[in-house]
Amino acid sequence: MSQKNTYDVVVIGSGPGGYSAALRAAQLGFDTALVEKEKTLGGVCLNVGCIPSKALLDSSERYHQARHKMAEHGIEIKDVRLDLETMMSRKNKVVEELTHNLRELLERGKIEIIHGTARVEAPDRVHVTRNEETGSGDRELILPARYILVATGSEPNPLPDLDFDGKHIISSTDALALDTVPKRLGIVGAGYVGLELGSVWQRLGSEVTVIEMLPQAAGNADGQVARTLMRLLKAQGMDIRLKTTVTKAAVKDNQVEVSVKAKDASDTLSFDRLLVSVGRRPRLDGLGLDELGVETDPDTGRIVVDAAFRTRVPSIYAIGDIIAGPMLAHKASAEGAAAAECMAGLPGDVNYDTIPSVIYTSPQAAGAGMTQEDAKKRGIPFLTGTYPFSGTGRARCLGETDGFVKLIVHKTSDRILGVHIIGPSASEMIAEGVAAMEAGMTATQIASMVHSHPTFSEAIQEAAAAVPKKQWQP
After folding, report:
1. Domain FAD/NAD(P)-binding, which positions (predicted)?
2. Catalytic site residues?
């Protein structure tokens, strides 16, 4: 596709937010260009984040089941052997196929794809230095545009004195491409990424120690869910140390020596690899936005936008990890589509109160809406209803009975404020909770809905039925 003289929209970044914005803009009739500095499309999520990590989580779970769980089903498997090279090749193939499908989707939408490094030179102009491997054509491009949307995502956040070297002290990207199973793997940070990658390598044979300075693992998850998840992961053999800080780390004799402190006690731990997973930071270097007057939050470094995703420069928009809110791929996708609609004068909107989050450990943990802690902090009168998976026939048949469903319900209106699940298929089940909250449904309505039997989703129905009914009037 040849370069146009001008574009309605130039999108910088092809991750979930960027490609969703480009596709929606094209659907709305905008001439659209998408600039991506990497060789492949899809951003962090598709290439070194969501997709490859879930591929390894699924593969490692199958390996674990083959070694430890098939016998109880009457299936004897002998001499189970790990072929890590094949497992990694499968992961890479999944990524390759999805990036190829994404390119085809964008090309069918008549979106011009340009691989190169972008810099916003003016409110209506993007300068692109195309990658050297790009075929014929000018190396330097000027893309005039009515609107510019920045969706450059985020990158791992290093700790002071714990710089990534890619071999001993590694990032989440490095942890997705190890060629051997570390005998001892240390992880700094008990957030979603740390727990997921810890699960992968523990299943494959690593001794995993997770170090977290906060009193709770799993970030902002509901407290009861987080405590249950930590208990179950510890039972699987993961060593999780809360309220513990890393005071020093050094590579010595091909090992990472880590000094940690918890309360008044100190310890020194030795690892083959140390994964630093303490969050991510917005990727904004080199874009030239400061010079144009685009405002960033001094505390987070993220771009400040209004309800329509406009920056202080009206023609420049921003979405995804570089603006406020959870750093989640589906949050960025929703914002991308909404931003394109706002450019077209439509009421693009994202309901941040119902955005789900998932931890793909085993068992999985998922949540949407208010946690019990949120409701208490905001002074909202609430009731809870819980139901264990051990009470559902489907979970019993599968042999996956750990966990529960928990509903947070407004005490006087019975409306569902939050849904939190830890257990089998939590990542899929949470969609029912999101739909219920979007529709303003009550616990009574969910309890009266007929759910298929036997299914995991019956636990949601039972949790709704377990909400006390004396305090409210229907």
Report:
1. 7-336
2. 453
